[in-house]
Design brief:
By secondary structure, this protein is an alpha+beta fold. The chain is 17% helix and 44% strand.
């Protein structure tokens, strides 16, 4: 009879750990330029914002100079929303565009796939798709 509370507590801990493993929100380290992207809940969807990277540390006022839309080139790169409106879960989210401020390209058919503390980030430009691998940073 005394084992029942212990089993209930252990089950709750295991369930909490499983829920955390499928939680995509938080800080992620990109696989290039020592970047950091904060993934957060935005309404019913998932969004991602650039928090930090080598070029931001070198120049905190760096602007989105490579953007194909000239009207957006004066906005700061730090804090830039890279993707928004991604839905799905618990381990895969799909959505619209995903933006790369380093090239100014906006990929289509974005996909995020979570595997533990690893995140596969995919976007396509026409028939060419690129996949990045991020790791949980915090």
């Amino acid at each position: 009879m005394k084992m029942l509370p212990a089993l209930v507590a252990a089950s709750a801990l295991l369930a909490a750990g499983a829920a955390h493993a499928a939680d995509i929100t938080g800080l992620w380290a990109t696989d290039s330029d020592n970047g950091r992207v904060r993934i957060y809940q935005c309404g019913e969807a998932i969004c991602g914002k650039l928090i930090d990277a080598d070029q931001i540390r070198a120049n905190p006022n760096e602007t989105d100079q490579y953007n194909k839309n000239r009207a957006l080139r004066s906005r700061k790169v730090k804090g830039l929303v890279l993707f928004s409106g991604y839905t799905g879960g618990p381990n895969e989210w799909t959505g619209g565009p995903i933006y790369d401020p380093k090239s100014g390209d906006t990929g289509r058919n974005g996909k995020l796939r979570l595997n533990g503390d690893k995140l596969e980030v995919k976007g396509c430009l026409g028939p060419i798709c690129r996949t990045k691998h991020w790791t949980r940073a915090g």
